[in-house]
Amino acid sequence: MPAPTALDFVVTFTCPQRRGIVHGLTGVLVEHGGDIIELKQFDDPLTDHFFSRIRFSLSEGADPEKVRADFAVLAEEFRADWSLRPTAQKQRVLVMVSKFGHCLNDLLYRARMGELNAEIVAVVSNHPDHRQTVEWHGIPFHHVPVTKDTKAEAEARLLDLVDRFEVDLVVLARYMQILSDELSRELTGRAINIHHSFLPSFKGAKPYHQAYARGVKTVGATAHYVNDELDEGPIITQQVIEVDHTHGPEDLVAAGRDSENKALADAVKWHCDSRVFLNGDRTVILR
User: Fold this and answer.
1) Quick one: which of 27, 139, 155, 247 has the fewest CB in 10 Å?
2) Model confidence pLDDT, tens digit, residues 86-109
3) Residue 20, C-beta contacts closer than 8 angstroms, at least 6 positions apart
């Protein structure tokens, strides 16, 4: 696929299913001399909803704001939720972490190497352990301790950082504090969590030791959107790694780290590429 240029854009469009949606979308592009690079769509017969992602390029003389205005008219006609952004526009990401640093390190590396269409603008942690690593990457590190008595104050500080850094996405990279219902609702659709199992298996402390005791044959991880139901948000992706009786608890931990890294990286990548749509309690991924 061609590398994005300054005149490449992505439009996402979701609305109740009816005839003429694709015709309307492509008609706007034809009107403005747009060239479609990639078009994905899905009609959900269960919810009777339509989902589409189109990557397109404009010619030198085209006016993106006129294209945006025409899409806005179309969205009003079809009662659609939609967005339009330059393909190369990086999403501004704030990462939250506690003591386990593998997912944080993986995201820092992928962002630094350009594998994610994301800029990590800040890292927040309830422990100071990863300050040196984060600041080595030139990223602000904010130590925000959380206790039962300071939880509300800590969450208010987090929201202040989200506003100050103009954050598009919050990533809980093994952040081991439960967000309040109010904060979860505030971040609906723009906060991703990684969970150390196929939900809802092996919840709580030492999940891999629980898995070992049960003689599991796979370990896995689930990346999902945060909502006000603990670890029950819409699932974006899951990863599994096969194991056997020779794997001790620490081997399972190591395999689990790999699955967590991959699941979270995929979820962040797809979100930042505008490939993930909320569909009630589920997601649609247009890959």
Assistant:
1) 27
2) 999 999 999 999 999 999 999 999
3) none
Overall CATH class of domain 8-86: alpha beta
Which token pair is 167?
Answer: 């954050």
Architecture of domain 91-285: 3-Layer(aba) Sandwich (3.40)
d(CA 25, CA 5): 21
Helix axes 64-78, 21-31, angle to 10 degrees: 160
Given this model, what pLDDT does residue 3 score? 67
Contacts (Cβ under 8 Å, ≥6 apart) of 104? 95, 97, 123, 130, 133, 134, 173, 174
> Catalytic: which of 44, 231, 258, 266?
231
Length of the chain in residues, anyone? 287
Q: Tell me the pLDDT band of 61, cut-offs 50, 70 and 90.
A: confident
For 143, 193, 221, 235, the CA distances from 197, given in Å and listed in that order, are 27, 12, 4, 12
Bond preceding residue 234 cis, omega within 30 of 0: no
Cβ-contact 119, 138 below 8 angstroms: no
Specify the 3-state DSSP secondary structure of 148: coil
Q: What is the DSSP letter of 6?
A: T
Residues 6 or more apart in contact with residue 140 via CB below 8 angstroms: 121, 122, 123, 134
Domain boundaries, the chain: 8-86, 91-285
CA angle 277–54–52, rounded 5-degree value? 40
50 token code pair? 């339509």
Largest CA distance in the chain: 65
Q: What is the pLDDT of residues 6-28, one digit of tens each?
A: 689 999 999 999 999 999 999 99
Q: What pLDDT does residue 202 have?
A: 65
Q: Are 236 and 271 in contact (CB under 8 A)?
A: yes
Nearest residue to 176 (alpha-carbon basis) of 259, 263, 99: 99
